[in-house]
Amino acid sequence: MSARETILNAVRSGLGNTAVDPAAVRRDADALLQDLPSIRPALLADGLVDAFIARVTSPKVAATAERIASASELPAAVGRYLEAFGLPAVVALQPAAPLQDLDWSGFELHDKVAPDEMIAIGVARWGIAETGSLVFHSGADTPILANFLPLHHLVMVRADTILPFLDDYAAATAGQRPPRNVNIVTGASGTTDIEGSLVLGAHGPRFLHVVIVGTPDSSE
Amino acid sequence: MQEATLSFKARAQEALADPTLKIAIDRTTGTAERKRAVAMTQFPQFEAARERGKRIKDHVIANLDHYLLEFERNAIASGAKVHWARTAEEASQIVVRLCKEAGAKRVTRVKSMLGEEIGLPHALDEAGIERVETDLAEHIVQLGGDRPSHIVWPSMHRTREQVSEMFKRLHRAPHQEETIEAMVDSARRELRDKFLTADVAISGANFLVADTGATCTVTNEGNAELTTTPPRVHIVTAGIEKLVPSTEHALLLLRLLVRSATGADVTQYTTFHCGPKQTGDRDGPEEFHIVLVDNGRTRMLREGMKDMLRCIRCGACMNHCVVFRQLGGHVYGGTYPGPMGAVLTPVFDGLESSRDLPHACTMNGKCQEVCPVAIPLPTLLRGWRDRSWREGLEPATVRFGLGIHTFVASRPRLYRLGTAIAIRVMRLFSRGGLVKGMPGLGAWTAYREFPAPAKRTFMEMYKDQEKGQ
């Protein structure tokens, strides 16, 4: 008997060899997703954007955030960030249209992220207010490593893509073909492996700066 | 995964005598306990969420065959190759074979307790494949040539001074400054090129998502994604109990897992890996393998240990265990330490060699109280004690001692006489209300004092009071 058969048989006999009704299993699984408000934490503010920013900048997440009215203001916001850190205007830009279409004059751009990349700019598909998280789907315009190699990671997210809770992301994408990677990123890379004390910049970015564009009802 | 030949008690003696170990344990578990407590006050819905988490896991276990097949179907549809392993050896052999087929010289690994459980580090070393541990703690464990001592902080037994010494000796460009920041930087430099030049990546999974066929890893360092993206082949090893019906169910459990483990609300990086690189993708592996491992889990199902299959490996039970916090993880001898380890190790290694573990427990119930999926750990430990007694594994001295106790305790007059004499003798050895040493009490007084007993027994005082009325 193959390992597969042996394991499945052992599972069935361990469960008492009762017949499984897939429809009933589905019903039970769905029932476990009912009444979600009773098992969710509270948001930190009333408005979604405010709650998101409050979480992103809270000590637990320890990232920085700013708001801009339109994506066209992003290069200027990036310029200010680089200036504050005294960094050169040499950046890896995610090859995604919402970023590539902007006016980056004055910047030296490349789209391949180097192992010791100093600054990378990306765009997240969603933000999550509950945790201050950013959600990326890997793909033709979203290399996975771009989120992990740079020391400074600057991420644009549209205000109207900020979801209240983690499970809202799952509900929003249920039934769709998943990408190779869904990366839910919350703050910079950190480790507590030496005596439990938190140090940022373990293997991934040491700095995460989130730029929120527009308002929840803007349709930019 | 047997520790050395030393008995549990001998290992415990050694751990208690180690002057730095207790400091190292306290620094990490103390922080974890405090941070979890704060996280609980910020999430008053935790109890309700915990009940839901328990029900999700119970639902999966009750329909495990259904979910295994659904997961397999969807994983294959996503382009993954699914393998099944009955035992630890079989699982390791599959991984080593896949590495060899890929012509792997260097393999990068993401920390996975299941990988430790199946002896993967050893199997890869035996096969002559260069193994690079990328989680900082596992990197420290690898440099130190020892074993993980905690499931969330594997190098918890090392102080910063010890880590500094190792990095200076073994890193190519070690830190100059004696700060933890500088040490973390040193590891970052050391591992950078290894991430990018490995042939195969091996990770575990915190969740297996049945309706997508995806596997999920959670890390704070970002080492999982740096590990699983550049190599041509990504192999996942996961226990069959890791299944969840959907991504939504996984995210509900994630809230419980992270708060219980570190007190954070969510890990910095939560990643779902579904199949290999897709057409047009900029990066990602070309081959994606998933090895589903039984290794005793179906036996647990059969032998009344279903509750333990809910475990999501957060480590809260050990952070809050009074025994673990005195001894650390190595003393337990198995892959998993602390209360959950004392329940699991007899499953993997047999009760005969691990019968001391279920006894290394005060039954204070703290582990069950903090468990995010409400596993009745004390009950399961008592089950092992019971079985050890029934199977005659308890040593003759214990049987003899308990025999005497039973004889005396079931004869009230004899019992009262005995206790009346005992407390009077003990008072002769007491100084300032404490017994610091006494013949026959050495096992206790070697590490702590015994409070001096009252002048007279409860029954003596009770009788006098009755007479007086």
From TrEMBL, chain A:
Domain LUD: 119-213
Coiled coil: none
The name this protein goes by in its record: L-lactate dehydrogenase complex protein LldG
TrEMBL record, chain B:
Domain (4Fe-4S ferredoxin-type): residue spans on this chain: 308-375
GO term, biological process aspect, one: lactate metabolic process
NCBIfam families, per the entry: LutB/LldF family L-lactate oxidation iron-sulfur protein
Protein name listed in UniProt: L-lactate dehydrogenase complex protein LldF
Originating species: Plasticicumulans lactativorans
Pfam families attached to this UniProt entry: Fer4_8 (PF13183), LUD_dom (PF02589), LutB_C (PF11870)
Keyword field: 4Fe-4S, Electron transport, Iron, Iron-sulfur, Metal-binding, Repeat, Transport
Gene Ontology terms for molecular function: 4 iron, 4 sulfur cluster binding
Matches recorded under SUPFAM superfamilies: alpha-helical ferredoxin, NagB/RpiA/CoA transferase-like
Lineage, highest ranks first: Bacteria, Pseudomonadati, Pseudomonadota, Gammaproteobacteria, Candidatus Competibacteraceae
LUD domain sequence ranges: 70-293
Domain Lactate utilization protein B C-terminal: 406-466
